[in-house]
Amino acid sequence: MANKKHQVVFIGGGSGTMMGASQLLRYNKGGKLDVAIIEPSETHYYQPEWTLVGGGIKSKPSTAKPMKDVLPKAATWIKDYVEDIDPDNNNITLRSGDVIEYEYLVVAPGVEYRLDLIEGLTEAMGKNGVCSNYMDPDYTWELLQNFKGGTALYTQPTTQIKCPGAPQKIMYITADHIRGNGVVKDTNMVFATPGSVVFGVEPFKSELVRIINDKYDIAQRYGYKLVKVDGPNKIATYERADLPEGSNHVVNDPNNKINETQNGDRYEIKYDMMHLAPPQSAPRWFMKTKLANQDGPNVGWMAVDKFSMQSTKYSNVFGLGDVTDLPTAKTGAGIRKQAPVVVTNILNFIDGKEISDMKYSGYASCPLVTSKHTMLLAEFGYDGVRMTDPMLPKWLTAKERWLMWIMKRYILGNLYWLLMRRGIRF
Ligand SMILES: Cc1cc2nc3c(=O)[nH]c(=O)nc-3n(C[C@H](O)[C@H](O)[C@H](O)COP(=O)(O)OP(=O)(O)OC[C@H]3O[C@@H](n4cnc5c(N)ncnc54)[C@H](O)[C@@H]3O)c2cc1C
Questions:
Q1: Per CATH, which fold does 113-279 belong to?
Q2: Looking at ligand 1, which residue's alpha carbon is closest to its atom 4?
Q3: Does domain 3-111+282-362 have CATH number 3.40.190.10?
Q4: According to the model, what pLDDT value does residue 103 have?
C-alpha cells in the first residue's frame, strides 16, 4: 500500500476528464500543475458514434483510440479502479490498496449499467434479438442485417440515462433501413417509453411527432415502465409508469398493429427484435461515498451546484459529466460547456481567488439521427429552454436536415478527437 499525493486528481478517463484535464493544463497560466488521472481502461471510445456503428454506418474500431493517446501527456495516468473516496481526509482508495491524496478532486467516472434492475434482463441482453447500442452496437447491426420482419421494439428504462435521444436514433435508422431493403411491409415498429412525450422541448418535439407518425408510422406507448424481459420467449412486460400531473398512459397505435396482451396490471409485448437503453445509476461504489446524494430523486448521483459544478458538500471537489445530479440531459455536448467552468474554478482556487462567476447553463445537445442521411440537432438548457450554439443559425436546427447529418457523420467526431482532446475551447 503506497501513499501518493497530487495537486489535482481526476477520477475516470472518459469525455469529462479528457476535456477537463486537457483544458486545465492548457489554460493554466501559472507554474507547473501536478495532475493525475485514475482510469483502468486501455481504450477510450467516442460513444456518440456507437449509434452509427449500430446502424452499420461506421465500424466500432473507428470510434476508439488508445487511452494513452487521449489523456494529456503532462498528466500522470494511474491505471487502477477507484473503490472509495474519503473527502474528509482528501484521499482516494484504489483497488490495488494504494491511497491517493489530492488538493482538488474532479469526479467523472460516468454511469454504471444496471441490468439487475429489470427482471430477466441480465440473461436476455446480447442474445435472442435483445440488443443495445450502449453496450454492444455490433450486435445491433447484426440483428438489423438479419431482420426479416415482425415486431421491432424500441424502449428505455425509468432511470436517468445518458444521451436520452439515443434509443430513438437507432429506431429511426432501423425504420430507414427496412424501407431500403423491402422488409418494411412485414414489420411493425413500436416505441415504448416511461415518459409522456416523444421529446420535451419545442420545436424538436413537433418535428419528432411528425417523423414518428407521418414519416415512419411507428406505434407508440407512453407511460410504459419495463419490468421484465423474457429472452427465450421474446416478451417484454410493462407496468404503468408514474407520469407528471396532467399526462396519461397513452397508446398511440391507430392501426392496432402491435401484438400486446394485458395481464392484470401488466402489458406484454411480443417482439422479434428489441433495442433498449439499459437502466443506469451512478457507479455503485460511488453511491456509498459522502459525495453522493443520500436520498431524494437523485439518490446516488453526485450532488453538485448546478451552475458552478462544485460539490455541494466539499468545496475542493467538483463533478463533471454523467455522474452528476445536474437537472439536464447527460451528454458529451454538455461536458463541453461544463469543463471551462470547472477548470476556471480550480485555477482560481489555486491562485488563492474566490470561485468564479462563470455559470453552466445546463446546455445539452442531442444529435437525433432521423435516417441514414438526416439529423435533427436538439439543443436545450435548464428548464427545457431551447438553446442554439452561436455557430449554428436557429433555422438550421429546427428540422431534420441532410446538412446536419453531414455534421454528425463527418464533423463531430473530428472536433472531439482534434480539438476537445487537446483542451481547445470553441
Ligand atoms: C450510444 C450512445 C450514444 C451517445 N450519443 C451522444 C451524442 O450524440 N451526443 C452527446 O453529446 N453525447 C452522447 N452520448 C453520451 C456521452 O458519450 C456521455 O455523456 C459522455 O461520454 C460522458 O462522459 P463522462 O466522462 O461523464 O463518462 P464516460 O465518458 O463514460 O467516462 C467514464 C470513465 O470512467 C472510468 N471509470 C469507471 N469506473 C471507474 C473507477 N472505479 N475508477 C476509475 N475510473 C473509472 C471508465 O472506464 C470511463 O473511461 C452517447 C452515449 C452513448 C452510450
A1: FAD/NAD(P)-binding domain (3.50.50)
A2: 48
A3: no
A4: 98
